[in-house]
Amino acid sequence: MTRDYEQFPDDDNGNVLWQMHEDGDDLTEPHEIEYSIAFTTQEQAEKCALYLLAEEQKISLFQDEESDAVEWIITIYVYMEPEYSDIVDLEQWFSKIAAEHGGEYDGWGCMAYVYDDEDEDDYED
């Protein structure tokens, strides 16, 4: 299949979405996409976490002790269809929130949802 650069632009987000598509992921199905913001202090992370909760976001907050420097990570869970423009819009919003709270936006990811038509036949009545 030829890549549609309007649907999958030639940048990091477009490349990830294109790879998901090529791997058989159904991008018309909602996915739980995880966006991350990193902080150097617990206080900054907690203030941002409270702000995100007030914005009705589903989040988790944890200390990443495996990184070179101790970091606090907020993961924001958004259930959505992985559509390029929506991902870019949310990245811009989370980058702005991160900067306002002394953190740094750290990207997104999600689990792949690959459906095999043959498997569906196995579960029919």
UniProtKB/TrEMBL annotation:
Residues 11-110 form the Regulator of ribonuclease activity B domain. Pfam families: RraB. InterPro entries: RraB-like_sf, RraB_dom. This is Ribonuclease E inhibitor RraB.
